[in-house]
Every structure is written in C-alpha cells, then in structure tokens.
Design goal:
The protein has 83 residues and is of the alpha+beta class. 27% of the residues lie in helices and 18% in strands. It has a domain at 2-38. The protein has 3 helices and 3 strands. The chain has a 3-stranded mixed β-sheet.
Length: 83
C-alpha cells in the first residue's frame, strides 16, 4: 500500500482519489506518521475473522450426560435436595 505525505496528497488529490476509486488504497501521513487510509467506498471491507471453533481441541467435556450431571451432588446438597 502506497503512503503519501500531506503536502503531496494536497497537490495530487485528484490523481490519488482516482487511483483509490480503482482499488488502489493509500495512506496519508503527516510528518512521517500514518494518519488516514483512503479507500474506495464500494470496495469490500475486510471481513472479521471467524471466532466459532477458535478453541477447538483445547479442552475436553464429559461424554454423554456427564456435562449435565457436573457438580450435581454439590448443588443438591446446597439446596437441601440430597438426603
């Protein structure tokens, strides 16, 4: 991606906008520090990364009804349901 300084952007704004409209995004910098990114409005924005399944394989769960019965004895005891 091309970076241009503020002065160059002022003097060549029409050319830079034409390039951006064709899909060539650019960054305008002030004193060498990037300030803004110019891109075409109809260009497709970056899609966020999918988060579903991001921890796949990093943990285990009890099989069958084990998950439902997790801490069952302690909960029954707390509420006086256990004899």
């Amino acid at each position: 991606m091309n970076t241009v300084n503020m002065h160059e952007a002022k003097t060549q704004l029409s050319k830079l906008v034409d390039k951006a409209a064709k899909g060539e995004s650019f960054i305008i910098a002030k004193a060498g520090k990037p300030m803004v990114k110019v891109t075409a409005i109809d260009s497709t924005p970056e899609k966020p990364k999918k988060r579903i399944g991001f921890m796949k394989g990093q943990g285990t769960f009890p099989e069958g009804n084990g998950f439902k019965d997790l801490f069952k004895d302690e909960i029954e005891e707390m509420f006086g349901l256990k004899d």
